[in-house]
UniProtKB/TrEMBL annotation:
One of its GO terms (molecular function) is protein-N-terminal-alanine acetyltransferase activity. Keywords: Transferase. The keyword Transferase applies. InterPro entries: Acyl_CoA_acyltransferase, GNAT_dom, N-acetyltransferase. Gene3D superfamilies: 3.40.630.30. Residues 12-174 form the N-acetyltransferase domain. GO terms for cellular component: cytoplasm. It comes from the Bacteria. The lineage of its organism: Bacteria, Bacillati, Bacillota, Clostridia, Thermoanaerobacterales. PANTHER family: GNAT FAMILY, PUTATIVE (AFU_ORTHOLOGUE AFUA_3G00765)-RELATED-RELATED (PTHR43792), RIBOSOMAL-PROTEIN-ALANINE ACETYLTRANSFERASE (PTHR43792:SF9). The keyword rRNA-binding does not apply. This is Ribosomal-protein-alanine N-acetyltransferase. It comes from Caldanaerobacter subterraneus.
Amino acid sequence: MFYQPVLETSRLILKKISLEDAEDMFEYASDPEVTKYVSWEYHKNIEDSLKFINLLLLRYEKGEPSDWGLYLKENGKLIGTCGFLFIDGRNMIGEIGYVLGKKYWNKGIMTEAVRKVIEFGFEKLNLNRIQARCKVENVASERVMQKVGMKFEGVLREAVFVKGRFWDMKMYSILKREYEKNREA
């Protein structure tokens, strides 16, 4: 059973998303540039955002790994998501994914959020490995993985079929011992 507590960074509150967040979500999820590298299609209307939020609410209810909403402390606005796509409890592995509104790119916000989710994964969920993947072309996502101390493991050739084609994916990971060493440094 996965639990999703409220997490906090210097600029963000990470918490469960609610139906009231549909307009904020639609604002970033309807941007084809934001959704260019994600596995889902951009939201064409507010109903698409409501459907996605209802999916998250169901995951929360079932205690399944899911996304936190990323809310700016200064105004409470939802600007993206970050969370666990899955957790393999037997092997103590978690995989994370994230998306952020274009207005907030290149400000270190996603790096801040991913660091917090990694901390939670190692310190509260007792994971041994946290991994993330991105399409080979997604340089910005890869940069976030590098900044949080993840190591490049290789390219998974044609690993996902999304938006009508196969995509090569870069795999990054960080181990608990590496996280602990980085924290001490």
